Amino acid sequence: MSDNLDNRHRDRDGRISEKHSNTLVGTLRQTYGDDFAEGWRSDAQLGTVLDDAGADTLSEYLKQQRGR
Asked: Mean pLDDT over residues 42-68, rounded?
C-alpha cells in the first residue's frame, strides 16, 4: 500500500516525518533520480541546497524544480 510518502513514515502522532537538512543529496538521488539537485555534489546536504534555492522544505524545492 503506497501513501505516496516518498519513503517517509508517519510519526507516532500520525504526522508525516520530514527529511532532515543534513540528508545528503546522494541519498536523495536514490529516491528522486540522478538529476535531483543537478550541479550539486552527492555529499552536499539538503539544507544547503534548500537555502540556495530559497526553499524551506524538500516538497517546496521539488515543486520549484518541476516548474522550471
From this structure: 93
